[in-house]
Specification:
This protein is of the alpha+beta class. It has helices at residues 2-7, 13-32, 45-60, and strands at 63-82, 86-103, 109-112, 118-129, 139-140, 147-148, 171-177.
Length: 178
């Protein structure tokens, strides 16, 4: 971890773990609300495809996956790799939530667990380019130059361009749930 901090002076363990927790929760809320555009800038194309396929399957069955009482119990960095072109951090995140499927039209319960939260282990991998650009506190749309709140939506409210966080910060490149 010390080597990472010396090579990436913007890295702090506490802010990184907070970012991991927020992205995890936002990804699940985005799946539940059928709005993956909210997290597009936080995740890799592979993760986006995986969740888009999941959402397409749900939509084709007129279903919505619910994550009631979603929370993060713990987040631990379990591996740090310093590669020639990027930093790669693997995290174990323990989550708790009710996971069930409802009919999208009637909202009637179909299957899953809607009675009690279950604890799940999630392994997430985040990557950041070693030669990433430095971003300021205020982020501006690379397309039109207007200020953006990437934590709110990740796309410009004026021209609807997506902010490419991959050029600046860690993005989620893999997520596995057990």
């Amino acid at each position: 971890m010390n080597e990472l901090v010396s090579l990436d002076p913007t890295f702090t363990e506490s802010s990184f773990k907070t970012k991991v927790d927020n992205i995890f929760v936002m990804l699940h809320i985005s799946l539940m609300t059928d709005n993956l555009k909210r997290v597009d800038h936080f995740i890799s194309d592979d993760v986006m495809r995986e969740f888009k396929n999941r959402l397409d399957t749900l939509n084709s069955n007129n279903e919505r996956e619910m994550f009631d009482e979603l929370n993060v119990k713990s987040t631990d960095i379990i591996n740090v790799e310093i590669l020639d072109d990027k930093f790669k951090i693997t995290v174990r995140l323990i989550s708790r939530y009710m996971d069930y499927i409802v009919d999208k039209t009637t909202l009637n319960f179909k299957r899953g667990n809607n009675q009690s939260r279950i604890e799940k282990e999630n392994i997430l991998v985040f990557e950041k380019l070693r030669n990433s650009k430095v971003q300021g506190v205020v982020r501006f749309c690379p397309n039109c130059g207007h200020p953006m709140d990437i934590n709110k939506s990740g796309y410009c409210e004026y021209c609807h361009s997506t902010y490419n966080l991959e050029d600046y910060d860690y993005i989620l490149t893999s997520i596995k749930t057990y």
